[in-house]
Amino acid sequence: MSETQVRTPRWLYAVLTIGLLLVVLPFAWMLVSSFKPEAEVRAVPPTWWPQTVTAENYDTLFTRLDFPTYFLNSAIVALAVTAGNVVFCSMLGYALAKLEFPGKRVLFVVVLGTLMVPGVVTFVPLFVLTTNLNLTNTLPGMILPFLAGPFGVFLIRQYVLGLPDELIQAARVDGAGELTIFARVIMPLCGPALATLAVLTFLTSWNNFLWPLVVATSEDKYTLPVALALYAVGQNATQYGLLLAGSVVVVLPVLVVFLLLQRYIVQGIAMTGIK
């Protein structure tokens, strides 16, 4: 064994394994318990494997609730917000990283400052603005306030800073405009950072509960988290089996997206963290 090779201690594997189990077990229990009848879900002490396997919770989810509508609303909102963040945050991040214009530093300080502002502070002004624009109870009302965010701008800026200036200068010499440089040079090179931003934005938007709850006033505009919370949590009792089944359905799309883009996410976070 060479001096440069370092053997990983066994205790580190043990610690990582324990951490993995602590993270995975709640999700595994959620998945298994979604196939239990309501009485068994409420049983004390709880059971790990269902004594009676049933798809009643999923049947209720897909028949009692207007699941296709809620799923479509969530998908439209999450995909539109993700696309908006990928485009607009990358535009501003590129401008702050590679372009020179008056007020550039001030604008970057403003972006950093907005990262420190809690979301509850802007919640009421956003709702008043949405109401004045007659966007309440509409999908655009759930999408427009979140089409760009300071975290995405900061993430893309940090990544673009590491790209060589010679590429941009060569494109300008060839006669390319800024929009062409952004679309054909910067965007293809920002794949890892854009994948990271897309997954984090999709996750946040897909699981967003409070804003759709306030903006949506009719059932046909509910998203999955809102519909699940309103129908599974009654005035007298909570249907935990239905909640577990709904949670599985809500988690699956995010899990699939993360698994598909995991390599780019790790690479994007690593490269932006180096700077």
Short note summarizing the structure:
With 275 residues, the chain is mostly helical. The protein has helices at 10-33, 38-41, 56-63, 67-98, 104-115, 119-132, 139-143, 150-161, 165-173, 178-189, 191-206, 210-215, 224-232, 240-274. It has a single domain, classed as MetI-like (MetI-like fold), CATH 1.10.3720.
Give your account of this protein's structure.
It is built from 14 helices and no strands. The chain has 275 residues and is an all-alpha fold. Helix 5 packs across helix 8 (150-161). The mean pLDDT is 83. It has helices at 10-33, 38-41, 56-63, 67-98, 104-115, 119-132, 139-143, 150-161, 165-173, 178-189, 191-206, 210-215, 224-232, 240-274. It has one domain (54-272): MetI-like fold (Orthogonal Bundle). The two termini are 33 Å apart.
Structural class: mainly alpha
Count of separate DSSP helical elements = 14
CATH architecture grouping = Orthogonal Bundle
Taken together, the total number of domains comes to: 1
Write the CATH homologous superfamily: MetI-like
| Strand element count | 0
Runs in which pLDDT lies below 50 for 5 or more consecutive residues are none
Q: Report the sheet with the most strands, covering strand number, pairing sense and barrel closure.
A: none
Order of helices and strands: HHHHHHHHHHHHHH
Do you know the CATH topology?
Answer: MetI-like fold
Alpha-carbon Rg, integer: 23 Å
CATH class: Mainly Alpha
What is the global morphology?
globular
Strand percentage: under 5%
Helix content: over 70%
Mean pLDDT: 83
